[in-house]
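Reminder: ligand-aware prediction takes two inputs, not one.
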Amino acid sequence: MSMDMQFLAGKKILLGISGGIAAYKCAELTRRLRDHGADIRVVMTKSAQEFITPLTMQAVSGHIVASSLLDPQAEAGMGHIELGKWADMILLAPATANLIARLHGGFADELLTTLCLASTAPIVIAPAMNMQMYLASATQYNLKRLEKRHFFIWGPGYGIQACGDVGPGRMLETDDLVQRTIDFFTPKETVFEGVNITITAGPTQEALDPVRYISNHSSGKMGFALATIAEQWGANVTLISGPTALPTPKNVHREKVVSALQMLKASINTINNCDIFIGCAAVADYRAQDICQQKIKKTSQSEDLILRLVKNPDIIASVANHPNRPYCVGFAAETESLEQYARGKLKSKKLDLIAANDVAKEGQGFNSEKNALTVFSNRQRFDIKLADKKEVARQLLKIISEQYQKKLTRDTKNNETDPT
Ligand code: C5P
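Here is what comes back for the chain with cytidine-5'-monophosphate:
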């Protein structure tokens, strides 16, 4: 079981559904939250039932769905006041403009609005509506005031809407809502309070001409997971990322780069403000010696094309060799002789730690959801078993924080005994 699953284990979430087209996503949302261990009770407004049936929500949540204040059967089970007390969180998804207005007004005109008034649980609003309705000054005003009253507003997302308009107003995607719920319940660790961490992530792209490049299959997920957890544990995180489709983690400063040379420049720029540097990017080893200004044409005279490549600088080695070097953690993706090659890189690049993964094994590492790592320092070895990348990130950051603290202690002692 992953740590993510544990974080929602036993958490009681009251899912309040109001009448928007995004209500159809609630069945999947409920299943996913339950997969992570949450207990879900569903309350639907009358209009929500026009979009998804209580029977569906009963089947996926495993409990009778409450929808009426005056339903003796439902009140005989868990009455509305009890339901409000039961919840660790009320998640209103989708929350329509109408529901938002009623919350702002403090109405108790339906079971769901009554529950929101009667409960002391944190209330999360996931707005979902047409973009004009979202941008309307009344809705904006209501949301701002609700936020001031400590309601949490998640979203909305931006994109194509049911009516065909493109703009803000979509309910956040299920993945995003699930992740935010996990983050919400994740206890705040503070091991990195005040520590500046730079992380490189993703692939680099090395242009050949205006339309072509050399790159690799790195998804960036491992580096983004490290950035997410490091931030949650109190670090000030700079994430220098090559091209990926991943969203920037909350409160993380992201610098988007394309090539290895750009990544090097951005990395060196952070050194004076960096305590720990984690090189997670899959940097292209070579780049084109000359980038053609025009598209390279295929010719009828020749069956082959010769490209001259030159070596890219080694970013993490440049950081580790800098006079003001931070604590340096590298990665090594290997297909054979894992320990030998990883230890070789630890030494030649002058790193403090190296996290090695066997990319020949199926289902881990490059472009996969999971990873397993063996971490080497000069003296020690730590094994992190196959798990999803967030869990692997947690375990790796735990090792990094312990080793980093030890190094600080060693450095302090050395400075005390050595008067030079
Ligand atoms: O030498 P190799 O590519 O296997 O080393 C992997 C480690 O070195 C990773 O931490 C990677 O981010 C870093 N690296 C780098 N610059 C390069 C090549 C690799 O920072 N040009």
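The longest strand covers residues 327-334. Residues 27 and 59 are 9 Å apart (CA to CA). We will return to this case in the review session.
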